[in-house]
Write a structure and sequence with these properties.
By secondary structure, this protein is of the alpha+beta class. The protein contains 10 helices and 6 strands; from the N terminus they run αααααββααβααβββα. About 55% of the residues lie in helices and about 10% in strands. About 5% of the residues have low confidence.
Length: about 280
């Protein structure tokens, strides 16, 4: 199990990188020498091709290499002049690049189904299918009907539940740009259409009977819930992609935390006390 620890992978890889650098550094270019290796040129060529969906012309490639050389010169001169010192943007960029290493290490650890199943069980509240509705609605506009809107809706409700001859329930209400019938709609989608108050009103609605009036952001509605599927926990088969993504994110955060814990051991960290007049409460 310990062989699968991302932190161990990171430390081993880091040791190899430093060892390799120590071995090849003496033979590397001098500080005043810039070598554009074949590997670097291939990376520039690949980046251009991916961006523009074609290889560069010879003139374009010469320009790409020249731009890389200028960037390298600016980088070296900037370091020589100390332009990186106390630069928040550079510090954050270096932090991001360091943490990308943790991302790469985490990507090496492929979770088994057992691991994903356990992660799902430990975080079931994040992987739950929300309620789903199939319903019909009849709209009554308070702007158009004024104070009689509630009374009109009540009379229509009585008619719908007592007169089986009524087939076009929508004709009893007012026109609305939203559909009179929605099929298999998630609760969050209904909330986006009609508002939170409407969704809350559905929670007491019994399937098969016209009920209401229920208020929405538009006005009043009579509602017939045809099908209601309550919220339930998702299985791994249903949520595997989301579970895997969530597991990856959690592993990344853990790997970064452990990385910094390990690196902090090499430092003596002192936080000077702030004056009481400047420190926040």
């Amino acid at each position: 199990m310990w062989l699968k620890e991302p932190l161990l992978h990171f430390l081993v890889l880091g040791a190899l990188v430093f060892a390799l650098y120590g071995y090849i550094a003496p033979d590397g270019p001098a500080d005043d020498e810039i070598v554009v290796t074949r590997k670097q040129q291939q990376q520039l060529l690949t980046a251009f091709t991916r961006t523009w969906q074609r290889p560069p012309t010879q003139a374009e490639f010469t320009g790409i290499v020249d731009a890389w050389v200028r960037e390298e010169i600016a980088y070296r001169e900037g370091l020589e002049m100390g332009l990186d010192t106390n630069d928040t943007m550079i510090r954050r960029r270096l932090q991001q690049k360091l943490e990308v290493l943790a991302d790469d290490i985490v990507s090496l650890a492929e979770p088994t189904n057992e691991v994903l199943q356990q992660h799902l069980a430990n975080n079931q509240s994040r992987f739950t299918r929300e309620p789903i509705y199939t319903l019909r609605q009849v709209y009554f506009s308070e702007d158009r009907r004024g104070p009689t809107a509630m009374q009109d809706a009540g009379q229509a409700l009585l008619l719908l539940n007592t007169d089986s001859a009524v087939t076009n329930a929508e004709d009893l209400g007012d026109a609305l740009s939203l559909p009179h019938r929605v099929v298999g709609e998630r609760e969050s989608a209904l909330e986006a259409r009609f508002g939170r108050e409407f969704v809350e009103g559905l929670q007491d609605a019994k399937p098969g009977t016209w009920q209401g009036p229920i208020r929405s952001v538009y006005g009043l509605h009579l509602v017939l819930v045809e099908v209601f599927l309550p919220a339930r926990a998702l299985t791994l088969e249903e949520a595997e992609r989301d579970v895997r993504r969530d597991w990856d994110n959690e592993q990344r955060a853990t790997a970064i935390d452990r990385l910094y814990e390990r690196l902090r051991e090499a430092y003596t960290i002192t936080v000077e006390p702030m004056p009481e007049t400047t420190a926040g409460s």
